[in-house]
Amino acid sequence: MSEDEIVRKSIQVKTSLWDRFQKKIEEVYGTTYKKQGEAIENALINYINGIENDPEEVEKLKNQLNNINNENSQLKTQNTEYTNKINNLKEKINELQSRYDEQKNENQNIKEELQKTKNENTEMMNKIQQDTNQIQHSTKSIKELEVNENKLQTSLKSKSDELNKISQDNKDLTTKNKELTDELMDLKLKVNEYKKDVDSFKDKEKLYEESIAEKDKRNKLLEDQIKDLKNDKKNNVEEIKELKEERKTLTKDKNEIAQNLETTEQQYDNQIKEYKKLVNKREHTQEVLNKQQDELNEAMKKLEKYSYAMGKLENMSLIDRLFNRIPTEVKQLAPGEEEKDD
After folding, report:
1. What contacts 223, CB < 8 A, 6 or more positions away?
2. Which of 38, 55, 72, 278 has the greatest CB tally within 10 Å of its CB?
3. CA-to-CA distance for 266 and 186, rounded, in angstroms?
4. Contact present, 13 and 22 (Cβ < 8 Å)
5. d(CA 214, CA 4)
6. Where along the chain do its domains lie?
């Protein structure tokens, strides 16, 4: 680039100073049209010449340059601090990510435990249903046995009544037989007295003997029937006894099943309580995960701000660095404010 080549530069000045500069140009040249560049060149030449001829200005510029270098060193130090903070944030993010993964795994384990508990509860409910069905079946069997027992009691009563009737008939026959025997004896006595009528008496005696034999035969049949009824009664009593024993056994089984059902219900209640504990633990874990996720998001936002600020610092022009024109984004991340935010 030659010394006489025209270049374009953008500068920032105060409004009041620029207005005074414009007014001065108009006083000197009578107009500001196409005179601003020339006036600025003259001002720069006079400024440079004045500095070279003025040792104080040179020293002042050196001091300003030293200040700029010091500020540049401070910026580098701040840059190093920001870099360290970024690294710390990255480590913290990695740590949070690890904790998040651990919590996620623990949450998965809790979900598996919850599923296992649900399966156990389902099995428990099936077992309770089976026990309930068994109790209903046993109750039905007991009712059937009670009905059979009532039928047997009714049958036994009927047979007892029949046996009593047969016994009464037998008693009547025995009484009548005794009467006939007494009458036969009387007739035998009369035979001796009435020998003339012996044939007649013999015939009559024969008839009486046949009648007695028939009655004895009937008595024998009645005795056999009574014996059979007694045996039936004995068998019925034994059968009723067996039914009572079976009923007692079924009642005992029913009580045991009821006890098992109560124990099963207690176990089910315990499983429900454990399930609620696991649900509460899962909710607490989810809250911790949400909080850690918020912290992770906040750290990522800070990292983005630092990265953006670092980009701004790296893209600063030489003029901005000389005049310490630090971007607003970097000023907002000053160490004091950052610590305050933390």
Report:
1. 170
2. 278
3. 89
4. no
5. 173
6. 18-60, 85-314
What whole-number distance in Å separates Cα of residue 166 and Cα of residue 228?
12
- Per-position DSSP letters for 292-339, written without gaps between them: HHHHHHHHHHHHHHHHHHHHHHHT--HHHHHTT---HHHHHT-HHHHH
Query: How far is it, in rounded angstroms, from Cα 23 to Cα 33?
Result: 12
Q: What is the rounded distance in angstroms from the CA atom of residue 230 to the CA atom of residue 167? A: 12
Prediction pTM value: 0.33
Higher pLDDT, 122 or 321: 122
| 97 pLDDT more than 80 | yes
pLDDT digits (tens, 9 = 90+) for 120-168: 878 877 877 887 787 777 677 767 767 776 776 777 677 677 767 777 7
What mean pLDDT do residues 63-83 have? 74
Q: What is d(CA 134, CA 129) in angstroms, rounded to the nearest whole number?
A: 9
**Residue whose entry in the numeric block shows the structure tokens 């049949």:** 221
How many Cβ atoms from other residues are within 10 Å of residue 47's Cβ? 11
C-alpha span between 331 and 146 (Å, rounded): 97
Using CA atoms of 97, 103, 106, 107 in order, give the dihedral in degrees to the nearest 10: -110
Distance, in Å, from the CA atom of 41 to the CA atom of 55, rounded to the nearest integer, reads 22
In angstroms, the CA 283 to CA 285 distance is 5
CA 121 vs CA 54, 113, 127, 275: distances in Å? 97, 12, 10, 10
Fold of the domain built from segment(s) 85-314:
Helix Hairpins (1.10.287)
HEC profile of 136-181:
HHHHHHHHHHHHHHHHHHHHHHHHHHHHHHHHHHHHHHHHHHHHHH
d(CA 215, CA 271): 81
**pLDDT tens figures, 220-233:** 887 787 788 778 77
Pair 96, 296: CB distance under 8 Å: yes
Top pLDDT among 40 and 197 is at 40
